[in-house]
Every structure is written in C-alpha cells, then in structure tokens.
Specification:
This protein has helices at residues 15-21, 33-36, 63-68, 72-77, 95-104, 118-140, and strands spanning 6-8, 27-29, 44-49, 78-85, 108-113. The chain is an alpha/beta fold. The chain has a five-stranded parallel β-sheet with strand order 2-1-3-4-5, sandwiched between helices. The longest helix is centred in the last third of the chain and has 23 residues, at 118-140. The two termini are 16 Å apart. Bound molecules: flavin mononucleotide. Residues 10-11, 13-17, 49-52, 60, 84-86, 89, 92-95, 114 line the site of flavin mononucleotide.
Length: 141
C-alpha cells in the first residue's frame, strides 16, 4: 500500500525533523530547495511548526511552507495538516497549521508540542496508517 508522504519544515532546532524521522514513512524536508520545488506524486500531508513573527499581517507560516504551497497542483494534492507548536504562545498556538487547514479546507490531522512524546509519535503513525487505508479505498471506488 502507498504510504502517504509527509512534507515538513523544521528550523535549526530540529524538533519537527526529529518527529518526522520517527514516523517510519517517506518524509521530505522543505528546507531543501529540490524538495520545495518538487510536486508530490499523489496525496500528501503537511507537517509544520508555527513561528510568530510579531508582524500583524504576517501569519506564523514558515516561508519554505508558503513557497511549497504556491503550486496549485501541490495544493490540490494536500490531504491534511499536522502541526507542532508550543502552548506558551496562547492564542497563536498552532496558528500556522490551523490557518493552512482553514484556507485549504483540509483537516488538521494531529497537533503536538515541540518534538512530541513517544505517544504523540504513535498517535500520528496510527492516524497516517488509517489515512493510507482510506485513500486506497477511495482510489478503488
Ligand atoms: C520565535 C518562535 C516563535 C514561535 N511561535 C509559535 C507560535 O506562534 N505558535 C506556536 O504554537 N508555537 C510557536 N513556537 C514554537 C514552535 O513552533 C515549536 O517549538 C516547534 O516545535 C519548532 O519546531 P522546529 O524546531 O522543528 O522548528 C515558536 C517558537 C519560536 C522559537
């Protein structure tokens, strides 16, 4: 069965990268230019941290994520969003993942703080495995 790939962005602190690498499925790093300019070959999931910039207009969506989402085909193929954040940011908690989900009409599949716990990793793996099955079923119909 096809494993839905996860495209993620992670800053130097690498918390999202650590989480992504524990998912046991194809994951792609949007900080790499080749990845950011590619188009996924099928349904895919976004995993993004939130970064509040302090600028009112500017949301908290990391720039590489914005660039990747500029391509309409890429946007069409996105099936869900996962977010990493920190509750200390209060009203801005998970702002990037939630904003992208809202704009795209795709669901927030999972949210966790920082690099997540081992239970977060297991939950995310289960959610993604269920998604793989759903997508396979939808594809057959
Ligand atoms: C400058 C800065 C701004 C942040 N802004 C937010 C925010 O607005 N909302 C949120 O939920 N988390 C916020 N966070 C927390 C990060 O999203 C979280 O730590 C994430 O795990 C970072 O992932 P990374 O290390 O892979 O980049 C912020 C962190 C930093 C350092």
């Amino acid at each position: 069965m096809r494993q839905t790939p996860v495209y993620y962005y992670s800053s130097k602190s690498g918390m999202v990268k650590q989480f992504a690498n524990n998912l046991n499925r194809p994951v792609f790093d949007l900080s790499e230019r080749d990845i950011r300019t590619s188009v996924p070959d099928g349904p895919w999931v976004l995993l993004t941290p939130s970064y509040k910039t302090g600028n009112v207009d500017n949301d908290t969506i990391p720039e590489p994520v914005k660039r990747f989402l500029k391509n309409p085909e890429t946007r069409r193929k996105m099936v869900g969003v996962m977010g990493s954040g920190n509750r200390n940011f209060g009203a801005h908690y998970q702002a990037a993942a939630r904003q992208i989900a809202h704009i795209s009409g795709r669901p927030v599949l999972f949210e966790f703080e920082l690099q997540g716990t081992q239970w977060d990793v297991e939950d995310a793996q289960n959610i993604l495995n269920d998604l793989d099955h759903e997508l396979q079923r939808a594809h057959k119909e």
